[in-house]
Amino acid sequence: MTAKIAINGYGTIGKRVADAVAAQDDMRVVGVAKARPDFEAKMAIRKGFALYAANPDAGTKFEKAGVKVSGALDDLARAADLVVDCTPEDSGYKPLYEKAGIKAIWQGGEEHSLTNLSFNAAANYEECLGAKFVRVPSCNTTGLIRTLYPLDDQLGVTDVLAVMVRRATDPGDSKKGPINAVEPELEMPSHHGPDVQSVLPKLNIHTIALKVPTTIMHVHALAVDLKRATTEDAVLDVWKRFPRVAFVSGADGVRSTAQIMELARDLSRNRADLYEIAVWRDGVHVTGGKRLFYFQAVHQESDVVPENIDAIRSMLEIQKDGRKSMEKTDQSLGIGIVK
């Protein structure tokens, strides 16, 4: 079976998901939808993707801009088995998908209540088999689940405190800030903790967030209380057994997010994307046997991309074994060579 996948929204996440779908041998992109005839719309056509107007009144905009479209979003929905919605939050396309009778995946900007099913490939792949609507949680939430789920699965977790130092915006966005300030999220806990619990409902996690004037990555500082006594080496061994966690070292000169992104560039990754969560090996510390401290970095533009691919396989039941789907996705995207 070659699944026919539509991408609604061709921005930071949408264009990466489109490229990742195109890299699979069991699915293909039947088209991408855009609301505006901007440079990303033109780039989609250059890449060979059929372009559709996301809204009924958008066709005129594309025509005036000299950008050819293959139809409207409802045409694209009828031609696909599943749509990956990468539009801004609250864009409101769910009724269109329901009318077309098509399955859909949303991103983490949406509330869990939109689908009542949030996806992480390692944690609940089988739970999402055959699902009609699924949400892939945000980059920060995905990053937390990537390292906390293995710890809970292998060592048991009683409590988590995660402090997230969040990038202000993506590199290509010049509209947002802060510019010269550190902005605390005053809601307590930040939304990330409850979001993690949408996938891991039994995990006792508290989250605090700060927004800082950088664009390339998020950094998390975590304190985790474990049920079983352990060591730093044992913790690292747990993460080694799970995919999509990479290790970096301050001793090797990787002392900041700048060097992590330089490493991604040196790997010749598409767009210098780091799909893995980067954990500082020499930042992992265990005190008293059961309290673990560690730092991790999240490339917000790309860590959710492999989860979208696995969600497609789960929802369409192309592959019923989550681990096999992850292996296939990771091989196609070059994930796993940094350990």
The count of domains is 2
Helix content: 25-40%
Count every helix, treating DSSP H or I runs of 4 or more residues as helices. 12
As for the CATH topology of the largest domain, it is: Rossmann fold
Return Rg in Å.
Answer: 20 Å
Provide structural commentary.
The chain has 339 residues and is an alpha/beta fold. The chain folds into two domains: 3-136 and 304-333, NAD(P)-binding Rossmann-like Domain (Rossmann fold), CATH 3.40.50; 139-298, Dihydrodipicolinate Reductase, domain 2, CATH 3.30.360. Helices cover 32% and strands 23% of the residues. The protein is built from twelve helices and 14 strands. It has helices spanning 12-22, 39-46, 58-64, 73-79, 94-100, 121-124, 139-154, 192-197, 232-240, 257-266, 305-316, 322-333, and strands spanning 3-8, 27-34, 51-53, 82-85, 103-106, 133-135, 157-167, 183-184, 205-212, 218-226, 245-248, 277-280, 285-287, 291-298. The strands form two sheets. Strands 7, 8, 9, 10, 11, 12, 13 and 14 form an eight-stranded mixed beta sheet that branches. Strand 4, helix 5 (94-100) and strand 5 form a beta-alpha-beta unit. Helix 1 (12-22) crosses helix 11 and helix 11 (305-316) crosses helix 12. The chain is globular. The mean pLDDT is 95.
Provide the descriptors you would attach to this structure in a database record.
eight-stranded mixed β-sheet; six-stranded parallel β-sheet; Dihydrodipicolinate Reductase, domain 2; 12 helices; Rossmann fold; alpha/beta; 2 domains; 339 residues; 14 strands; globular
